[in-house]
Every structure is written in C-alpha cells, then in structure tokens.
C-alpha cells in the first residue's frame, strides 16, 4: 500500500471519529434536554418556580446565554472537561426552560414535529456535507437573518401578534435550515484540516463546539416547526 493511500486512510479515520464524536455529543445534549423538559413538566412546583416567576426565568435565560458565550468564546482557554461540563449543564438548563412545550402543546404533536425536524435536519446536514458548493457566504446572510428573528421576537413580546409570530416561525425555519447546512460544512472543513496527532483534549473541545452549533440549529428549528405544526391543548 502506498504512503498516499495510508495517509488518506488515516485522514478518513480521523474525520469519521471526529464527526461521530460531534453527533454523539449533540445526541446526548438533545436527549438530556428532552428528559429534563419532560420531568419538569410533570412537576407543578418546579414549573411554578421557573415559569411563574419572571425574575427566575430571566435569570435562567441570562445564565443560559452566558454558558453559550463561555463555550463559544472561551473554548481555547478552558479545559476539555470544563467545556464538556458547560455543554451538559446548558443542555439540562435548556430542558428546564423548554418544559413549557409539554404544557402548551399536545404530546402527539410534539412527537410528530420532532420527527419532521429530525428528517429536515438530516437532509440539510447531508446537503452541507456532500455539496461541492462553498457555503461560506451563507454564514453572514443567515446570521443577519438570525439577528432579525431575535429583534422581531423581542418586539412581538410587547405587541403579541399571532400573525407576526407565524411569519417569524416561517422565516426561522428558512434561517435554521440554512444554518444547519452551513454549520455542517464548517464542521466538515474543521475535521479535514485538523492535523494528525492533535492533542485529544483539543479534539474534544472542537467536538463540543461543533455539537453546540448543531444542537442550537436543531432546537431552534424544532421550536419554529412546533409553532407551525404544533397543536395546542
């Protein structure tokens, strides 16, 4: 076997291991979020404490945002163990905040929407991985769309327009579909460019960062789809 073939085979193994690690951590985060959300939804006391107290809810949202920025912004400064712990804590906390969906929507519509989201996510992720087109320019476009969604959602908190909420949801689906493909291609490029013999802790941190990006794409896509397809109680 030639040296080129050996090198190519080794690269494929490294890429597959890295990508498998990313999706495993993402799946773990989603599973933890779902379990915590369901458990909290079955506890009236916790629901009342979190969703019935504006101060507690806002505090948890701030902590949640802080965790995301800590993982994304300080990934090079923190240890792999810290990054992993922060991701697990974030996933669990997100479950606490998302527990309301089991109160607002029927269980059957949550399950059906989850499978719709999973199928959409897989299709977009496969496109991002297999396409020869450079999706780098998509990043800025969809990021601006994300900023627009956040601003529109904040405004709609005051005007409480159901029509505007639905428009935001449809635009949100478009934005997070694009971000899923973009983030997947970015993950692929990260995997292909990582040097052989890279420290395991550095690889773990890269996997956690990639898992966080895809986790956020999946959760937000799910919530947008739930607003469109979910049946309220």
Taking the sheet with the most strands, its summary is: none
- How many domains, as an integer? 1
- Given helix and strand content, the structural type is mainly alpha
Helix/strand order, N-terminal first: HHHHHHHHH
Low-confidence stretches: none
Q: Estimate the helix proportion, in percent.
A: over 70%
**Secondary structure tally: strands:** 0
- Report the sheet-strand fraction: under 5%
Globular, elongated, flat, extended or rod-shaped: what is the shape?
globular
In round numbers, the mean pLDDT is 88
Put simply, the count of helices is: 9
The rounded Rg comes to 19 Å
Distance between the termini: 63 Å
Describe this structure in words.
- This protein is mostly helical.
- It has one domain (3-229).
- Helices cover 85% and strands 0% of the residues.
- It is built from nine helices and no strands.
- The protein has helices at 3-41, 44-51, 54-73, 80-97, 101-104, 107-130, 136-159, 162-193, 200-229.
- Helix 1 (3-41) runs antiparallel to helix 8, helix 1 (3-41) crosses helix 9 (200-229) and helix 8 (162-193) packs antiparallel against helix 9.
- The chain is globular, with a radius of gyration of 19 Å.
- The relative contact order is 0.16.
